[in-house]
Amino acid sequence: MGVLGCGTHTVRIIDRVTGRHVASPPLARVQWSRRRDQWSTASVQFVKRPGTDCCGEISVVRTWRHELEVSRDGVVVWVGPIQRISENRTRIQIDAADRLVWLSRRVLRGTRTMTDIDPTRIFAAVLAEALGRYDTIPVRPALVDCGTATSLSWDFANRTTAWEALRDILGVHVDATMVADILYAGPTTVPAGVVATLSEPDIVGDVDVIEDGDTVATIAHVRAAGGLAATFPPEPATAPLGDDWWGVIDGIVDRSTAASAAEALAGARSAWRNRRHPPLFVSLPSSARLAPTAPITVAQLIPGAQVTLSFKKNRCRPVTGRYEIVDMAVSQGSGSGAARTADGQFATTGDAAAENVVVSLAPAGASDG
Question: pTM to 2 decimals?
Fold first, then answer.
């Protein structure tokens, strides 16, 4: 089993047309991320050193023409076109977005209608049209069919960008995430299953275990349009109402989409199953920093992947639950004037140990506790 570790980053600036490496200035700070259903960003800072010609390399770098490539321990983890270059007396900063950003800058040409087709196939067709026909943007697709059907059409007369065309598909029918030059897309971004189990020592910062009684309903009622209503469990004629332990706690759900008594009853039954017991869940800091000893690798930190959080030691209410990675971000370096040594290493012990790996997690299922 791999562990997160404390990696060291290097960057290169690449001419996206020729593939030629044009710059690798001394690195003072790097940040990069992975996001689901949105392009991610990266940022690097280079310190100007007296007596060195850092401008010689950087002066030829241009937005959109050149790409930023970030590696961690020699493995490329992020790549995308440069969006902004800023300079002051002491440092140069370069900001970039991953290759998904090209979908927002490519208008779909021609006319096409796709009806009742798997959403992943539609997504692939839009990618091919936007990134593959003119001024090709290299993306290695790792696509999985959704097993459902939807429709999409475009007409060049409307001047619609690929990103606009995908607005009703991405995040609704298809999830997508860029990992370096690989595009993961499908009903989820990664194969189903838990990639790691994390316990309290793996999270830097305090973690709360919470029982939330606000959502409890031992009897669920659905109100629908046209006077439709349903209750589950059904109201007994003589037996006591509610739960033997919690008693009567009514919960009302407005379900305007219910078109029949059967649909209203199904909604009430579903609400009761989900709410009959108060949920016990783990509340993490808004962005949880992972310890270097956490039993998960950067390659596994893909938005959409699931982890099990198990908090048992020194807990009155031990809890275990599944959580989904929503996004992740990595940073290293303080941006200080020390920057890096001549051989490319961070110049101070503090900078070398300052890698931060942060994840945002959302509950993927009920917790046991």
Answer: 0.80
Q: What is the spatial distance between Cα 169 and Cα 183, in angstroms, rounded to a whole number? A: 16
Retrieve residue 369's tokens: 């506790």
Amino acid at 110: G
Q: Please give the C-alpha separations between residue 114 and each of 84, 173, 247, in angstroms, as whole numbers.
A: 37, 15, 53
Residue 165 per-residue DSSP state: H
In angstroms, the CA 307 to CA 11 distance is 29
φ and ψ at residue 41, rounded to 5 degrees:
-130, 160
Containing 130, the helix (H) or strand (E) segment is helix 119-132
pLDDT in tens, 126-159: 999 999 988 999 999 999 999 999 999 999 999 9
Interior angle at CA 331, CA 328 and CA 337, nearest 5: 165
How far apart are alpha carbons 16 and 83 in whole angstroms?
13
Q: Residue length, the chain?
A: 369
- 3-state class of 271 per DSSP? helix
First to last CA, the chain: 27
Inter-residue contact 85 to 41 (CB < 8 Å): no
Burial pattern 166-197, b for ≥16 Cβ within 10 A else e, equals beebbeebbbbbbbbbebbbbbbbbeeeebbe
Residue tagged 């949880």 (tokens): 288
Name the region of 171 (left: φ>0; alpha: ψ -120 to 50; beta: rest). left
pLDDT in tens, 271-319: 898 888 887 777 776 667 899 999 999 999 999 899 998 888 888 888 8
Expressed in percent and rounded to 5, the helix, strand and coil fractions of the chain are 15, 40, 40
Tell me the β-bridge partners of 204. 289
Q: Under a CB-based contact definition with an 8 Å cutoff, are residues 366 and 319 in contact?
A: no
Place of tokens 């046991």: 368
C-alpha span between 42 and 332 (Å, rounded): 12
Query: Cα 285 to the chain's mean position, in Å?
Result: 17
pLDDT at position 202: 92
Q: Is 102 helix (H, G, I), strand (E, B) or coil?
A: helix
316, two tokens: 């009155």
Q: Which helix (H) or strand (E) holds 208?
A: strand 208-211
Token representation of residue 191: 């194969």
